[in-house]
Design goal:
This protein has 141 residues and is α+β, with helices and mostly antiparallel strands. The protein has a single domain, classed as Electron Transport, Fmn-binding Protein, Chain A (Pnp Oxidase, Chain A), CATH 2.30.110.10. It is globular and about 35 Å long.
Amino acid sequence: MTAPTDMNDWNRKIIEEFRANEGRVGGPFEGAPMILVHHIGAKSGTERVTPLVYFPQPDDQIVIIASKAGAPTNPDWYHNLKANPKITVEVGTETFAVEAAEVEGAERDTIWDAAVAANPGFGEYQTKTSRLIPVLRLTRI
């Protein structure tokens, strides 16, 4: 696993590229829709920014997936959104407020299946872990 400082540096570079290119990044995320999620630390209260692939929904909502590349635990940002669901996101050149909510049951499965069809890597992540990878909906507020 990558050391946290390396991951922070990697994320910082993606964030810089995102902001310099109107929300587009290259490398492993070339062509994928990217979002910058501003979230407040559940324990620290510190604002953090995490770049993620997102899945636009027909109802103008956004779905993000707490895959952590198939790690056995959920990503820190997931816990932060559960504790502080009203956040700000950056999509393209626009910044706006959203409220995050976990999607569960049959609705989660439908969204998950569509996400895996669009980006099969998420399906591979699920095979690496015994946890059910969470799906979250971001609704503009």
